[in-house]
Amino acid sequence: MIETGGVHFTQHPGPTKQLEGAKSPQGQPGKLQGEGLVATSNDASKFADAAEEMSFIAGQFKNKTSDKRKFKTGSGLSASILDRVKKIQTIQGVQGVKDLLNNFQTQKNLTNQQIRERLEEFSDDQVDQFMALDIAADYFERLGDKEKADQIREIRDDIRAENKSLIKAAVNVSEDAAGFPHLGEVRDIREAYDSNVQSYVRDDQSLEKLHHFLTENYGTEDVEEAIIMQLKLLSSEMASMDPSAPPEHLDAIVKDLSKLKQLVAIHDSCIETEEQLVRTYPETELNENVLMGQLLNLIQQQWVTEADFEKIPDKMNVQQLDAQIFTLTKVVAAVRMIPDEVFVNDDTKQAIISAAAEGLDSKIEQEAAEEVASPQDSDSIIGEIAVDLTSVKRPNDESEE
Description:
With 401 residues, the chain is mostly helical. The chain folds into three domains: 2-71 and 178-266, no CATH class; 89-164, no CATH class; 267-365, Monooxygenase (Up-down Bundle), CATH 1.20.1280.80. The protein has 16 helices and three strands. It has helices at 47-55, 79-87, 94-106, 112-122, 126-143, 146-162, 164-177, 186-201, 207-218, 223-240, 247-280, 290-299, 306-315, 321-337, 346-390, 395-400, and strands spanning 2-4, 7-23, 29-41. A three-stranded antiparallel β-sheet has the order 1-2-3, sandwiched between helices. Helix 5 (126-143) runs antiparallel to helix 6 and helix 7 (164-177) packs antiparallel against helix 10 (223-240). 33% of the residues are buried. The model is unreliable at 1-78, 87-92 and 380-395 (pLDDT under 50). Residues 1-36 are annotated as: Disordered. One of its GO terms (cellular component) is outer membrane.
């Protein structure tokens, strides 16, 4: 059991959910699988509000067991955690650290305030400052300058006390980010993650923007793994927070968890549709990953027409009419399955379903018209051939004359 502020997270085995058709970089089917987190509240903490959103992670991803993290409940971080964090470079570039150490070494008798000023010049990120001071303390300890090492450790501990939840969360997030090296550098992933969470604080996030964030930063081919990573990072940060955390930041995490849940459902449906389409119409050279983007764009609109949906097969490079009808049938079904809260308002979902159904009906009517026209065309051709034949004189006819 993990006790964090006013909520207890208890682990239990969770189900496995397969994103059909999704492939890992190695070409193997990807999975979102996990261990569940069930929350029970013993006070009115904001963490209780997040319990329901946390529970869905059980079926979505495998989370590192939080109670195995080597954080002490007393003084703070263990040496083993700090060593691991140093190795994954959560701080600024190595040269920046060397410059800071050189500054501390060449300028004698620096006051605590002066050291703080040097840290501000080094980075405005408290996690960077904390980690740099930890390295600096070890450095001067090895040089035999125990006085300076102790001074730096004192400032380091002050920064940790001032930003306990933030530093703890950042270390956890950075450690998990290191598990996805092919998605980018740890620092870049952490900065992108922070920016994404802040977009919820600003309340300018949507499913389409979230999908764009994931594909822009990690590529369309790795979007499933990016979702897994994002879920892990959010869970790590949430498990690190305490009741003193800003409520708007906790709300942002809960919103991101909810959006990711919705995105996984739509992604699942789109992948399944594309797979079925290719199996049924193997001659189709499908533009992959188009359906997801098109669908996310339309469900964010307040007004759509049947023409908007009729364009989807063309953008997917589905040319055959019966294949287009197959695609739009799946699109209508996918829209019906999307949760109501995803749409702009209560009426939007029904309006979009109606527009999609009308687009599908138009294609069906087009197919019926073509089928009706085909026999007529055949009769016309036969009639023309018959007329031509009557105009041709047979040899026997000439002899009879």
